[in-house]
Design a protein that fits this description.
Layout: E1 2-6, H1 10-20, E2 27-32, H2 35-45, E3 49-53, H3 59-66, E4 71-74, H4 81-91, E5 94-97, H5 102-109, H6 112-117, E6 121-123, H7 128-141, E7 146-158, H8 173-181, E8 184-188, E9 191-195, E10 202-206, E11 211-217, H9 225-228, E12 235-242, H10 246-255, E13 263-266, E14 269-272, H11 273-284, E15 291-303, E16 306-317, H12 326-343, E17 351-352, H13 361-370, E18 375-380
Parallel strand pairs: 1-2, 1-4, 2-3, 4-5, 5-6, 6-17, 7-12
Antiparallel strand pairs: 7-15, 8-9, 8-12, 10-11, 11-12, 13-14, 15-16, 16-18
Helix pairs in contact: 1-2, 1-12, 3-4, 4-5, 7-12
């Protein structure tokens, strides 16, 4: 199997690492508009990785590189995913991406029939959340005769939090702010609704040393679950996990207009408040250091006329051996696994399908376990 990873940043380099260390993958092409970055990442990974200079806006170049491989993984901005989807269909190649914007995902899904005709599978919104969490929610629901509620909770956190926000940058600041200000889609009382992000604060209890943490609404994490389960469940939601106190402090900054699109004069240039806020966060928040991921997904329903709750829980840490962060591992490794599942026919569907529609839970959990990403499954009730 030959694979192409487009984007040699944190997520792309981790994707290429996992593909290169998989038995079924003979060669990985790691492409980026910045060849030096691609070359540096390829050298760090070592075996079977070939750096490639590629501008995703150059259609002919994208098509040429795609024609060399069996599967393509997009780890660049979500703004490129529609273009890459069209190129994958044109070249007859399977394509997985990290998603992150539902408007783009729905445009990709409009190409479903064209993907089927090309005999390819396009899977947007792979990764952690959206991605792994939604796969667990949809897959776990299949256990029940009747499903009542589905709840997803995920958070990327520093192992050593520093006040005042007790947070470090584990993915793009732009994406973080977007999650915090865009409305979140939920199901409440059996109906799909839009609710404000950073609302509905709740407390969760994780094993020591974490203890009590907080979770609140953020946008994007449910992927297409609200559409899948509309009219089928009473409640469905996604919340982001943070250390206690983070929500109140960050929400105060948003309430003061720090993320608004209001133009401001800065010297001789005009910038928005949001652009300035992003720059401040990049300067003031740590972007390195050991991180961790907390995840809990639970599904409530009826099985054999008994009320039960199925719980998936994951606590994952920065990998000391490979120096790959937990956010990189839990976002990129599932995407690598899914891409390989498509090529080896573990996933046989064709078209454009987000992973919650087509990725089998048990094989994914088993593959993640081989990478020391452990998802514990338990029941209550």
């Amino acid at each position: 199997m030959k694979a192409l990873v487009i984007g040699a940043g944190m997520m792309g380099s981790a994707l290429a690492y996992d593909l290169a260390h998989s038995d079924d993958v003979a060669k990985v092409y790691l492409a980026d508009i910045d060849f030096d970055r691609a070359e540096s990442a390829a050298k760090n990974i070592g075996t079977n990785v070939v750096p490639v200079k590629l501008d995703v806006n150059s259609h002919d170049d994208v098509v040429y590189v795609m024609e060399q491989v069996d599967v393509v993984c997009g780890a660049t901005s979500y703004n490129h995913n529609l273009l890459l989807t069209k190129a994958a269909i044109e070249t007859g190649k399977h394509f997985c991406d990290l998603g992150g914007n539902m408007d783009v995902v729905y445009k990709q899904m409009e190409l479903n029939e064209k993907a089927k005709a090309a005999n390819v599978l396009i899977i947007p919104n792979c990764g952690l959340a959206p991605g792994l969490a939604a796969i667990l929610g949809a897959g776990g629901a299949k256990y029940f005769d009747v499903v009542d509620e589905i709840h997803l909770r995920v958070g990327g956190l520093p192992q050593h939090p520093v006040p005042p926000l007790n947070y470090q940058i584990v993915f793009s600041v732009e994406g973080l702010i977007n999650e915090y200000i865009e409305p979140a889609e939920v199901i409440r009382n059996g109906e799909v609704k839009q609710v404000p992000s950073m609302d509905d604060l709740e407390e969760l209890d994780f094993p020591s040393p974490f203890g009590k943490v907080e979770a609140f609404n953020t946008s994007g994490g449910v992927s297409t679950l609200t559409k899948m389960f509309n009219g089928k469940v009473k409640a469905l939601d996604y919340k982001t996990i943070r250390y206690k106190g983070h929500c109140d402090k960050f929400k105060t900054l948003l309430d003061l207009g720090f993320a608004s699109s209001e133009p401001l004069m800065v010297g001789n240039s005009v910038k928005t408040a949001r652009e300035l806020f992003q720059e401040l966060l990049k300067k003031k928040l740590p972007s390195s250091g050991h991180d961790l991921i907390l995840m809990r997904v639970w599904i409530q329903g009826t099985k054999n006329k008994e009320q039960r709750t199925l719980i998936y829980e994951m606590i994952d840490y920065f990998d000391e051996k490979t120096k790959i962060s937990s956010m990189m591992r839990t976002t990129s490794f599932p995407t690598s696994i899914i891409a390989q599942m498509v090529v080896n026919s573990t996933i046989k569907e064709r078209g454009v399908l987000p992973p919650e529609h087509c990725v089998p839970v048990t094989p994914l959990i088993n593959e993640l376990k081989k990478r020391n990403i452990i998802i514990k499954e338990s029941f209550s009730g």
